[in-house]
Amino acid sequence: MKFGFFDDVNREYVIETPKTPFPWINYLGSNDFYSIISNTAGGYSFYKDARLRRLTRYRYNNIPLDTNGKYFYIKDGSEVWSPSWKPAQAELDSYECRHGLGYSKFKGVKNGVEASVLYFIPSSDNVEIQRVTIVNSSDSVKELTLFSFVEWCLWNALDDMTNFQRNLSTGEVEVEGSTIYHKTEYRERRNHYAFYSVNASIDSYDTDREAFMGLYNDLSNPQAVELGRCSNSEAHGWSPIASHCKNMTLKPGEKVELVFLLGYVENEQYSKFNDDGTINKAQAKALMAKYGTSEVVEAALAELKHGWEAKVGKMQLSFSDERLTRMMNIWHPYQSMITYQFSRSASFFESGIGRGIGFRDSNQDIIGFVHMDPEKARQRIIDIASTQFEDGGAYHQYQPLTKRGNNDIGGNFNDDPLWLILSTTTYIKETGDWAILDEQVPFDNDTDNCATLFEHLKRSFYHVVNNLGEHGLPLIGRADWNDCLNLNCFSNNPDDSFQTTENLDGKNAESVLIAGMFVLYGSEFAHLCGLLSKKEEATAAYEHIAKMKQAVDAHGWDGEWFLRAYDHFGSKIGSKECEEGRIFIESQGFCVMAGIGVEDGRAAKALDSVNEHLACEYGIVLQNPPYSKYYMNLGEISSYPPGYKENAGIFCHNNPWIMIAETKVGNGSRAFDYYSRITPAYIEHISDLHRTEPYVYSQMIAGKDAYRPGEAKNSWLTGTAAWNYYAISQYILGIQPDYYGIKVDPCIPSEWDGFTITREYRGVKYQIEVQNPSHVSKGVKQLIVDGSMVEGNVVPLLEKGSTHIVRAILG
Ligand code: GLC
Ligand code: GLC
Prior knowledge:
By secondary structure, the protein is α+β, with helices and mostly antiparallel strands. The protein has 19 helices and 42 strands. Bound molecules: alpha-D-glucopyranose (2 copies).
């Protein structure tokens, strides 16, 4: 069942009912100022950091779900309704929500009144624009009252939810004209405030929640709205809010347009106050003046749209199946940019107060957006690398506001360092910016202790070499990519965190996943050394890689698939010998991507085993059979009920590893089949089962052993975004940026006739037409660039600013 449709021309998903199976959200954001907004206008705003600079309040895990947002009420006689259905929840004559790239639009119609609200954040300012348009489409005069509503958060989102003994006494506001300023804690150490304004005179306002709401009402029926006016309340402590009230008389056909602004301002310490002790409002007023008219708002929206067009326009597909083109041309690039931006911090599943920027996660995010915004990718790589330790290990996370490693979590996730090689080499292949390797980058943010980025990569490589276990395989540390395989935790205390508890010294448990990663990304490193003419470094690296391959051959192969790990006692994990958890996805993906067993048939065998034991209708589960009880030697993985999360859920992030692995053995049909099982546009028709947004990936879909297979959770912020985009574009469609040109190496279902991709690469536009006249899966027989044959399958670097036609004929 569907609850809306894709509007590909406008690059929007159009939701036709407010009652979706779960709130379906969108992200609005500039470089520093962001909002999350649901299909009923729920959500919140923050500046840079969802934990430390939260502007408006949100109530997680509420009843009903998705309570609090940027709300409007219309009072029309005795009836009260909202254009986004919530919060009033009055039945609408019609409702529509359009989530587009960086904006969301609502349109509600009731009793001959049409109300639309457009929400977006212009690219250059710290302000959310809410443009409200009300049209009287009836044939009689309408007397309407419009109310706005936001509830301020007292900045620190965690403190705001917990420290009531203080917070209920600190709230402060100022009101001037039609603008409500939120200035809690500005009198002491803060130099920032927020404001909520409208570009018209108002009839009344409220800033105190109780005055507006009434102590016994809720968001659906605030007392002030029922009364038809606010009481000009001034918040002192308790819960400051901002609500404007405006009366309007509309003749038949008449239209009113109002621009509301929700903004954030920082002042210098010396200019915080006016002489009379009120806050310095100059910057806020400048923003209000700038966005004072509908025309300016329209222009800012157009600019935002152009910005997104330019980004997604870097790679566009034309193909016979519109589900694939809409993923490639709109939703893959969009979700990849959003995931980069927010890492795993703020969504409707990530509270914005738990996690900062992940070392492993953000390195992987780079591969999904580097072609759209190389400058941001470069900065992110440097920021991440700056939290690396001298021994090559790394902080697992850092806070976006401070960019410093997070001590609460620390390090010891032994896969972390290798992801830096993936991000950096992918970045150089895309941009040709070799100079990034010479950047001086600190260790542990200590600017007195720097080394080149190349040296950081080397430390990453040798962190693995220096931390090998008894079988010559990498020690796993707290966990590798699978955060829940905690082989040194050994916790029987429910108050311990699986992620940070290490009851054992970590000298035994080994990871075959990291071994595969090392062969793959270690080889990238060695290859890079070769290109840089660092001959000795390259030779040394290749020797370590050869040893690792031997270790995998000797101790990492289980007969029909690759083992997953050895636990603290040296027992196998992910082996046919195990009672549960006999086969895992991750090591199959990484070992085959690394090329291990491709020549001797083990790779194909491992992938057949994946197909037999792990693949199901909704995707490929992480492992099987699921753990039915808690195993102290395995940790969190066995804490989840069977079929969920890492315990045999479809953890979408690792499915593309298998897709790419299938392309390594030339199985284009299977690769694409796996892709379509989890890809939003292909499963839109089961939205009722899937529940999360049909336009983006979720981290997890319940697996075949779950209570409700096919049901998804944790939408938006997931490594799946980057990896699936990477798998489909670089390995299935086969457009691979390389150091000295674009390699064309598709691996597709043989029945496909071909496709065309336009790709901007280092300032050159390539139109790449792949033709498949003999209906094969793989193998470029002829490459023709601007009419001339080229040897091999790499399109050479051409002159910046030029456009070229490439024809790749498979056969
Ligand atoms: C989450 C984490 C990621 C981890 C994955 C598997 O998505 O953000 O770092 O690799 O879970 O446990
Ligand atoms: C839990 C989740 C895992 C995530 C981790 C992040 O372990 O299951 O997916 O990576 O938390 O801290």
